[in-house]
Every structure is written in C-alpha cells, then in structure tokens.
Design brief:
The protein is of the alpha/beta class. It is built from eight helices and 19 strands. The longest helix is centred in the last third of the chain and has 15 residues. The relative contact order is 0.14. The protein binds NADP nicotinamide-adenine-dinucleotide phosphate.
C-alpha cells in the first residue's frame, strides 16, 4: 500500500521509524514537510533524543531520504506536489494542520486514496465515510467499501477507551472522573513564549500545566449511557515521553480489588493494546512500550464497594505511533 506521510514531527517520524522497521518499508513512497530539507530529516530520524538511534540508519540525497537498501523516499513541501508525484493509496496525516485535512477531504471525491488522521479533525467529523478507529475495541467495524477517512482519536482516548471497555464488560460504569499527567509535546514552548492560550504559553520544563480534555462525544459513541458522565482533565508535566492517567469510576454493582484486577487480566481487549503490570515501574520504563494502556497493578483500590480507583500508563508518542502503524498494516492487508 503506497503510503505518503504528511508532517515529519514527533508522531510522523515515529510512524516512519515503525514503518522502516517493518517488512513493508518499501511501501513508504514520500513525505511532506514545510522544511523540504532531506538531510535534516534524515538526521532527525537517525538521532532521536528520546528513542535513540535508528538502526539501520537512513541517508539523504538532495531531495530524498534514502534507506539502507537504497530505496529513495522523496520529500515535498506541498501536498499537491506529493499527491501528483507519489500516487499514494494511503495518506497518513501527522501535521495536525486543519488546512491540510480540509484540502484532503476536498480532493477525495476525484481520487481513490484513504486518509488516516492522527487526531480528531473537524473536516471529517460526522461524515458517513469517517471511521473513528480505536484499535482493539472497534477495529472489526471498519467497512472498506464505506470508510475513506480513518481517525485515530488521540493517545489519551486510545488509553481510556480500551480500559473502560475491559471494565464495562464485567460491570457497568455509571460515572467517573480522570486526571492524566501528560508528557510535553511540541505545541509547548521551552521558555515562556506567547501562545493562543495563557497556560499554553508557559515554559514546558518548568511547570505543571493544567488543561482540559473533554472526551464526552467520543465516549458516548462507545458507551452511550456514560458519555457526559465521564469528566476529566490533563496536566502537562516536564517529562519527554509517557503519560499516566488516574480514573475514579462509579460502578453499577459491587466490586473488589480482585474482580477489578481480573477485569483487566481476563479482558477481551488484545494484549498488544491493553496490559497490566504490578511491578513498581516509572515512566521511563515505558519508553518503547507499544501498548495503548498498561494498568498500574499497584494502584487498584475500591471505595465504598462500588467505586473503582486505578491508574494506567500510556506512551503518548511511541504507542500512539504504533497504533497508527497497526491500522496502516490492517488497511494494507484488506
Ligand atoms: N505528540 C503526541 O503525544 C501526540 C499523540 C497523539 C496524537 N498526536 C497528534 O499527532 C499530530 C502531530 O503531532 P506531533 O506531536 O507530531 O506534532 P509536531 O511534532 O509539531 O509535528 C507536526 C509536523 O508537521 C509539520 N507541519 C505542520 N504543518 C504542516 C504543513 N502545512 N505542511 C507540512 N508539514 C506541516 C510540522 O512542521 P513545523 O515544525 O515546521 O511546523 C511538524 O514537523 C497532531 O494531530 C497531534 O494531535 C500527537
């Protein structure tokens, strides 16, 4: 499946890394970036401050990335140029730029490609051709005849939905709250710097920075009665990767720590998506963990017989990029 990646930032480069290390490396046919500098992107792919060196490493020609096997991956500064030159079957949108999403949706009727979006984007919201894909939960509902636009709804949602799904299968969730301690992303400045929102303009590595996260519409798709009864927020913390969400959930029936643990251990969610670990680990231990959610087995508690309290780890970069790659792989094998 000829794959074009738009945006070689944190997520785009990790998707590229996962793809380069897969048997389908030769399916990567091009990339779009504002800075059309192949040498710079080869350097950034080869040397990642968080995930280390790429092996085998990648080289650059004047306008292409070049893999160890000699495959050339052209770099474009415009989406139109890339579409014309690469004839992709799948576009993986990792720029997060809504104008790109709009342009891709506008062009779609004249073309055959699908688009896999790295975030929920207004351009495809509510369209019948759109499928919000939470791997391990609803992947079997994908309809290749209908769905042109696939949305991977974000790292925290990828963690929350399989976790809630595992628990809801054993005991109905009535309401709840969550707080996610989330690592820094490149939307945050290193030092105080003017941004759209006041708190978003504060130095990433000097602060805990609270922010909202309203998943109610998405949660309602998967758990119709829960929707607005789950509220939460995030706190950006000065670490470069891996996040930790703590949930408090009121359940319909009584539960114990043992039944809570069993709900995760014996869950229908596949183990590459949801896991549980009771070792006293910390965030850096999850640097290259590809699971969407790893329940912290040391955190499980029950309050007044029917309220579950627990935490889960998720590597917002690595695991999210892994899910993007898994979805690509499923689409390629349809
Ligand atoms: N980081 C996470 O933890 C995470 C987790 C889940 C989902 N996501 C989603 O993944 C997407 C990418 O996030 P990210 O963290 O990878 O951001 P990022 O590091 O800022 O990467 C975005 C990249 O796209 C490039 N870009 C922006 N506009 C472009 C355009 N019009 N044409 C070509 N390239 C363009 C940017 O170039 P410049 O730097 O030159 O602007 C940058 O290299 C977003 O939709 C985000 O919501 C991120």
């Amino acid at each position: 499946m000829r794959t074009l990646i738009i945006g070689l930032g944190r997520i785009g480069r990790l998707v590229a890394r996962h793809l380069l290390n897969s048997p389908e490396a030769n399916h990567w046919v091009g990339a779009v970036e504002i800075t059309e500098d192949a040498a710079l992107f080869a350097y950034l792919l080869n040397h990642d401050s968080t995930y280390g060196h790429l092996d085998p490493s990648i080289q650059a020609t004047s306008d292409c990335l070049m893999t160890a096997t000699g495959q050339q991956i052209p770099l474009f500064s415009s989406v139109e140029g890339a579409l014309a030159a690469c004839s992709p079957d799948l576009i993986i949108e990792c720029s997060g730029d809504p104008r790109i999403a709009d342009a891709l949706v506008r062009r779609a009727p004249e073309t055959h490609w699908r688009v896999l979006f790295s975030s929920q984007t207004e351009a495809v919201k509510g369209k019948p051709e759109t499928f919000v894909w939470v791997d391990g939960v609803n992947h079997t509902d994908f309809d290749p005849k209908l769905h042109r636009f696939v949305v991977n709804p974000g790292c925290l949602n990828n963690c929350l939905i399989p976790t809630l799904s595992a628990l809801n299968a054993t005991n109905t969730i009535l309401a709840g709250t969550f707080v996610s301690v989330h690592s820094v992303t490149s939307t945050q400045p290193v030092l105080d710097h003017v941004a759209k929102h006041a708190r978003w303009s504060r130095a990433a590595y000097d602060n805990l920075i609270p922010a909202g996260h309203d998943p109610s519409q998405l949660i309602a798709r998967f758990f119709p009665t829960l929707g607005p009864r789950l509220i939460g927020r995030t706190v950006r913390a000065p670490v470069s990767h891996t996040s930790y969400v703590t949930l408090t959930l009121k359940m319909a029936s009584a539960l114990t720590v043992e039944t809570l643990k069993a709900a995760f251990q014996k869950s229908h969610i596949p183990p590459h998506v949801l896991g549980i670990d009771s070792r006293p680990l910390v965030s850096s231990d999850y640097r290259c963990d590809g699971r969407s959610a790893i329940i912290d087995g040391t955190s499980l508690r029950v309050l007044e017989d029917n309220t579950a309290f627990f935490s889960a780890w998720y590597n917002n970069e690595w695991a999210f990029a892994q899910r993007m790659t898994d979805i690509r792989c499923t689409l390629a094998n349809l």
